[in-house]
Amino acid sequence: MTQSDLLTRLSPLLKAECAAEASAAGVDAADLEQAVWVRLLSERDGQPAVRLHAAVRAEARAARRRARREVPYDPTAAEPSGRRLESGVEQQVLAAEAGRELRAAVRRLPGRCPRLLAALLSRSDPTYREIAGKLGMSQGSLGPVRSRCLGCLRRMLLAEIAAP
């Protein structure tokens, strides 16, 4: 099948599929259709008609991911508080400072809360079973203890904010 035959034969189906998926993906149906054609024509393995629906869904998911990552640039934008946005370096420094303050507050929590929250926030992303084994707790008690620890942390931070 030639590319022109392919375009003629699949175009109505592709238009319908793209129109159905475009609004949920937050993109224009014509843009989605164009991206799907590029995908279908660049992947010459198999039958494009069979892959059409999967290609539309994949391009719609990719468009949603791109939309979440894209932030329009506006150098005059201000925060809701009315302050101007800090530069990228300033934001990184402020975020690092906030992280240090949060970790310090977690270390001041009573009992086993510091160890539990540190394990939950670990970069290695352990499972509840691994955390329970490491802390010597039952797996079923992790959720309630975590909830109490977070409540305690919340109250501690609110008290610190209220009393400068």
UniProtKB/TrEMBL annotation:
Residues 64-86 are annotated as: Disordered. It comes from the Bacteria. GO terms for cellular component: DNA-directed RNA polymerase complex. InterPro entries: RNA_pol_sigma_r3/r4-like, WH-like_DNA-bd_sf. SUPFAM superfamilies: Sigma3 and sigma4 domains of RNA polymerase sigma factors (SSF88659). Keywords: DNA-directed RNA polymerase, Transcription. This is DNA-directed RNA polymerase specialized sigma24 family protein. The lineage of its organism: Bacteria, Bacillati, Actinomycetota, Actinomycetes, Kitasatosporales.
